[in-house]
Amino acid sequence: MDNIIETENLTKRYGGVPVVRSVSLAVPQGSVYGFIGPNGAGKSTTMKMLLGLVKQSGGSVRLLGREMNAENRLALLRQTGSLIESPSSYGHLTARENLRIVAQLKGVEETEIERVLRVVHLDQEKARRVKAFSLGMRQRLGIAQALLGRPRLLILDEPTNGLDPEGIREMRDLIRSLPQTAGATVLVSSHLLSEMELFVDYVGIIDHGRLLWQGPLARLQAERGGEVVVTRRSKTLEEIFLDLIHEQGEEAAE
């Protein structure tokens, strides 16, 4: 399987202090790749470097099979959708009107609007003003905006932040469906490890700017998910993560 994202020794320093340390990602095409770690681990900074929003201090980024540089960045980003931080929208306009503005900015035919509304399950809400939307609906509208233009890659930074359990479930089901319904590979970050293991195919585990493990979720569970002796059950992704953090700390102390 080809990788749609590849980084090599991607590094970012602020004032000489490293916040992302030689991260080498490999995100397979057609997958839902979960980029997981606690708040402050370096997830958002890494994603911003992938989008060219933050200049890396070292290393390289390949998107869609091409190394990203100043000359081809915009061309590559036209094939990439993203939702970084809170989605922007006009509350006094309807969902469809907001999407029309984004379609015009992207140079996308308005016929695309109905398609993305169906993908994110807002086609029955398109005439409502966005100020009446729940946070989960606003997040789905943000994903609809990112899907305009049929991007091959979608980068989502903490899309379930602040959502109630029902909103999290809806977002989880939506993201899991995107490779089939929208033809997009998804890189999604979160610190909610218990949620991520319900819908991702691949995982990259990051802590203190270092990539501790990456690969298929099933392989991680097979290699690291031995029984918890007291309860005779397999370890959760959160427990595996904590084991990796503990091992990393022991190695650093040696």
Structure description:
37% of the residues lie in helices and 26% in strands. The chain is of the alpha/beta class. The chain has a six-stranded mixed sheet with strand order 7-8-9-4-10-11, sandwiched between helices.
Radius of gyration: 19 Å
Q: In angstroms, what separates the terminal alpha carbons?
A: 38 Å
Q: How would you spell out the order of helices and strands?
A: EEEEHEEHEHHHEHEHEEHEEH
Low-pLDDT sequence parts: 227-232
Features of the shown structure:
about 250 residues, alpha/beta, globular, five-stranded antiparallel β-sheet, six-stranded mixed β-sheet
Short structural summary:
The protein is an alpha/beta fold. It is built from nine helices and 13 strands.
Task: Give the SSE layout.
Elements: E1 3-14, E2 17-23, E3 26-28, E4 32-36, H1 43-50, E5 58-63, E6 66-67, H2 73-77, E7 80-83, H3 95-106, H4 111-119, H5 135-147, E8 153-157, H6 165-181, E9 185-190, H7 193-196, E10 202-207, E11 210-216, H8 217-224, E12 227-228, E13 233-234, H9 237-253
Parallel strand pairs: 4-9, 4-10, 7-8, 8-9
Antiparallel strand pairs: 1-2, 1-3, 1-5, 5-6, 10-11, 12-13
